[in-house]
Amino acid sequence: MTTSQHDFAARARGAIEIVCAGDLSQMEEFFSPDFVDHVNDMTFHGYDGGRESVAFYLKIFKHLRMSVEEQVAEGDRVASRWVMSGVYRGRTVTLRGITISRFDTDGRTLEDHGHTDSIALIRQLGVLRSIGAGFQTMAGGELDSVTHLISDGRHAALKRMEKEAVEEHASGLTGVMS
Q1: For the residues of 127-172, what is the DSSP string, one character each?
Q2: CA–CA distance, 86 with 81 (Å, rounded to integer)
Q3: CA dist 113 to 16, 39, 176, Å?
Q4: Of 30, 58, 101, 161, whose CB neighbour count within 10 A is largest?
Q5: Residues 6+ apart with CB under 8 A from 85
Q6: Tens of pLDDT along 144-163?
Q7: 99: which strand partners?
Q8: Is pLDDT of 1 > 50?
Q9: In this predicted structure, what is the pLDDT of residue 178?
């Protein structure tokens, strides 16, 4: 039995809203055993690969939900614009993405090409804040203080050496730069 474009869109929606949201028991219902999942720069193969792809988000987020916002179908392909939401460390996080799915004649997904806004996700998880705070600390905080401390220490050592040279009636200092 072949499936119409309308059915492909419904199948893509089900795959995203059911399986990709965490109900991995439905994997075989929506995906071909030859399934290939391209997510950003990663590739997963078969049912195990599909489970691994979804498990990544299940490990990070509690209360994971996915919903399709818009779809366009043509032939055996469906483009789905979706939004994922979940809770990370008590904060609700959302991730938006687009997946282009290709189907076999039985209506199961053969291949997905998915792209997400990874920078927005990293920002929401607080990773950029942590990196930014580290750079700010190094550039404007601790690093600046350490640089002044080293400079002050060098000047104090030079002054001590000058004082000792005068006390010893030395004619000068060598190998010292300020």
Answers
A1: HHHHHHHHHHIIIIIHHHHHHHHHHHHHHHHHHHHHHHHHHTT-S-
A2: 17
A3: 13, 6, 63
A4: 101
A5: 63, 64, 65, 66, 92, 93, 94, 95
A6: 555 555 666 666 666 777 77
A7: 80, 114
A8: no
A9: 47
CA 115 to CA 81: how far, in whole Å? 10
Terminal-residue alpha carbon distance, the chain: 85
Question: What's the pLDDT at 128?
Answer: 61
The conformation of residue 20, written as its DSSP 8-state character, comes to: T
Cα-to-chain-centroid distance, residue 20: 17
Report pLDDT digits (tens) over 106-125: 999 999 999 998 888 888 88
Closest CA to 68 of 139, 2, 6, 9: 9
Q: Which of 102, 106, 82 is nearest to 29 (CA)?
A: 106
Length of the chain (residues): 178
- Range 153-161, long-range pairs (CB < 8 A, 24+ positions): 154/178
DSSP string, 96-111: EEEEEEEE-TTS-EEE
Q: Which of 120, 41, 119, 30 is nearest to 78 (CA)?
A: 30
- Find the helix or strand (DSSP H, E) in which 126 lies: none
Helix axes 118-125, 127-136, angle to 10 degrees: 70
How many whole angstroms separate alpha carbon 52 and alpha carbon 86?
18
